[in-house]
Design goal:
With 369 residues, the chain is mainly beta. The protein is built from 5 helices and 28 strands. The protein has a 4-stranded antiparallel beta sheet with strand order 1-2-3-4, with no helix packed on it. Strands 5-6-7-8 form a 4-stranded antiparallel beta sheet, with no helix packed on it. Strands 9-10-11-12 form a 4-stranded antiparallel beta sheet. The radius of gyration is 22 Å and the shape is globular. The N and C termini lie far apart (53 Å).
Length: 369
Amino acid sequence: MNKQGSLAAIIVISLIGFCVVIFASLKKKPRIVERTATADIYAVPETVAFDGSFQGGNRADPEITTILMDEGRLVIGTNKGIYVVPSLTGGEEPAERRNDARIAYLNVILPFNESRYIGADCLYRLDNNYVTTVGKIELGSEVYDMIPFGEGLLVGSDVGLWYHCDDIGYFESCPFDTLLKGDMVVTTLAEDRGGLWVGTHGDGLYYFDGQKWRERFLERDTAMFDYVNALEYVYPFLWVGTDEAVFRYDGGQWAQMFVADSSEYYDVTTIMTTPAATYIGTSNGLLRYASDSLKVVEGYEGMEIAGFCRSEKGVLVATRNNGIFTFNGREEIVSPEQLNPGTYDREDIDNAIAETDPDLAMTDQVIEP
């Protein structure tokens, strides 16, 4: 805790001077990040009509981008807004939070003090019910990740790493918005006991110890950390997920993690560690590390994992297009249809089937949802 406090103090006190040095030393690398998904329009009728990927007419389920538990509520961030499940045990339906801001490209939600921060096309500050917009912070970029730091937030965006603080009156040395490290797409952040880890899209993995930045890489392949999608630090390990592999760092050595004797490619999307295991989401399924063994979790093959959270029902696994499940027992908590209520009707289904198999559409074999 003392190390965290001293690190925060060093960053806050030296922000402005530090930025001058950084701006002078960085090379320009403009990046364009593609964050959209395309439905499979050639899927068989049963799949295209019922699994949530059909996007004909006005039919399209929201894609889940993040989940968290907030004061007993399951909060679901999607590309179409925010949904809240008031209780996981009461059988209540997800309710859309229609706030007064049009939030696009929602990537991350972070409760901090009495506010709820939304990382999207801008940095939004909402009340704790996700209804009223308290502030909209224009960073000139899309926000991908946030973590609390000192009296403010560290914010990863597509123009670099920001420090943001709202409580200027409470903490006089806290500037509103300061760019700490620019000209890079910051995708993910993690704080360990001595410093800050910063993952980027195309510019590598960096570590800040409170005084200087260092790029971290593997001598056997210096490009392995170029594209970092997920970071997770729980003592004594740092987990790093890239678009090609899973790594674990113990403070001295790096180890690439494999399933048994496999050397299979893993496009990591998210990582969460609990006392029992480390859960690793990929663009094509779910991995779990426990008892010194990394294994593929059955039942999630072909699904993109969007996020994890811990709840009264244990670990929850959110997929981008297939709903949210409990890890133990694989109970469905939220289905894709529940995020788009009232949009399934006979005409939509008939049209989807007719486009792929006109003969089937002539029969009475269609199952009503």
